Amino acid sequence: MYRQTNGTYSSVSLSREEANVLLNALQSLRTKPFGFFTVLLLLKSYLAYVAIFGTELSLAPLLTEIPFIWLIFCLIEWFASKRKLLYYFLTNLLVTAIFFAAIMYYQYYGVIVDYHALEQVNQVTAVKNSVFSLIKPYYLLIFTDIVVLAVFYLRGRKKLDWRLPSSGRERRGYMTALFVVSVVMCFVNIFPNRASMNELKKAEDMGILNYEAYTIFSKKTQDWTPLADITQEKIDGIKQIQPLQSLEYQGAAKGKNLIIIQMESFQNFLVGLELDGQQVTPNISRLMKENFYFPNFYQQVGQGNTSDAEFIVNTSLYIPQRGAATGVYAGKELPSLPKLMKSQGYNTATFHTNVVEFWNRGELYKAIGFDHYYDAKYFGEEDTVFFGASDEVLYRKTLDQLKEMDQQPEPFYAQIISMTAHHPYSIPEEKYKMKLPERFEGTFVGDYIRAQNYADYALGEFIAGLKERGIWDNSIIVIYGDHLGLPIYSLERKDKELMEEIYGREYSYTDMINIPLAVIGADFTHPTVFPQIGGQVDVLPTIANLMGIDLAGQIHFGQDIINQTYNVLPQRYYLPSGSFVSEKSLFMPGSGYEDGTQYPLAGDGGHHSGGATEKEYNQALELLHLSNSYAGQLPDRVREPQ
């Protein structure tokens, strides 16, 4: 063992009394592992339930998790004649890993992890800082017993022999009865809850382990609507889009350059925000104030986050039910904004400081038809922050390319992806452009605000550069946030208090997914606030109207939110399946519509009688199904030879 002496650690032997206690504990563990590990995993299941579901102590984990665990333990008792303790230990390790992964995934995405997330496990190392920042100290308690057992094994005077059979073999008849009861309990937990729409509720009612097993073995066949039956008229009918005789601002930006700027983790509350008299985002706030501003605009991304936002905006399709769009749909021939602009004679390019392989972007860019992409190879390693060059480098080097593109006879479409204000928002001190109020220092919310202040500063430099190079006056600029930055499920008490101070009320789910949208044209936009709701799927058709481009023949699930006022916005991933935003509220289902919850868009997150209707709930589900059917049946893209 290691014992501290005068501030240092030295290797010492166990005393006789310590050795006896250790050996007695190990002997008890070896002779009665069934009960020992049952208690350990029950405690861990309670930790997971509190962290994910916020439930108080109840019988739920005992009734849902323990039967599944006992199934495995019974199999060990039946078939492990040797190394039984090792198998118990490995089971403990596996179940602990599942609980820990569920906790961490919920902290980031607000949903329950399942085996599909393994497809993106290679992305974890790239965002390891984000992952580490989500770990709360008490979460690590879930590994305490594993560490202690390992230390006991390695440091004990007499090492425990994992190969030995347990001396207290459980009676086979007892194990058989317990196995049957456990199987029955698992079926009772799983089958009545299979139809639940809300994955969180499903996992809570089934049990986390039962839910994970259910997702693996419940293979659902694709029940797609035939392509011939998916028409724009059908989509518009579901969305209740009204045909209009004339459209406002139709063709107002015809022939202009198109520049789309996607702001990393930028939420709407930052627009106009002042802290103790200090503006947080003066440049973006001024642009929103002086041009077309859509404050009731919402994210629609999923597991792919930023790359999903790129996909939705450029295709006007919804993300897939599982996985990132760049992984699921990048092999398809996708109708897209770049292809639409190329049909009008435009050059197209996209700019992102990370490597193009991240989230499979290289394949996405081919699928949606960008002429050129500029990634880490172009931006280099100068002034890197997190996993790419800083926003200052992004904008400076992008300006060089835009100047060259602007000198060509054809207009251009450029999409620019900002990155520096990325979770966990711990930007280098030399990037600080504001002094935080003392109460915000050292908080997650404070770090977020400071990072977004820097992102705003860099954007201001870019806007100035566009004007200096003569690009500004002949361009339409579209700015929006890619996804949320402050998940409710990740915030500590202090952070929630700061958000309540900012909003003047409790920070809600509707606030969390609310991102801004601005449309800026030097000769046609003016200070206008559009109150109607919109989402990222609406960017393409809105731009098409402004550019005077006919979308006839191109399937799209969004709408022109300048001219259409009614909207339904299906949500995926950060909220339970079946969630959607309507004109009146954010709806989150329970098992279905009847036991769902309405969150008013105005914001206090409480229950109320009005809001989204069951008809709108069914509309949202049908739209998602049609998008899945359409994208899933598109022809595969012909791959270029490597």
From TrEMBL:
Substrate binds at residue 422. Its main location: membrane. One of its GO terms (cellular component) is plasma membrane. It is a multi-pass membrane protein. The chain crosses the membrane at residues 34-53, 59-79, 86-108, 137-154, 174-192. Mn(2+) binds at residues 264, 306, 482-483. Pathway: Cell wall biogenesis; lipoteichoic acid biosynthesis. InterPro entries: Alkaline_phosphatase_core_sf (IPR017850), LtaS-like (IPR012160), OpgB/LTA_synthase_biosynth (IPR050448), Sulfatase_N (IPR000917). GO terms for molecular function: metal ion binding. Belongs to the LTA synthase family. This is LTA synthase family protein. It comes from Paenibacillus roseus.
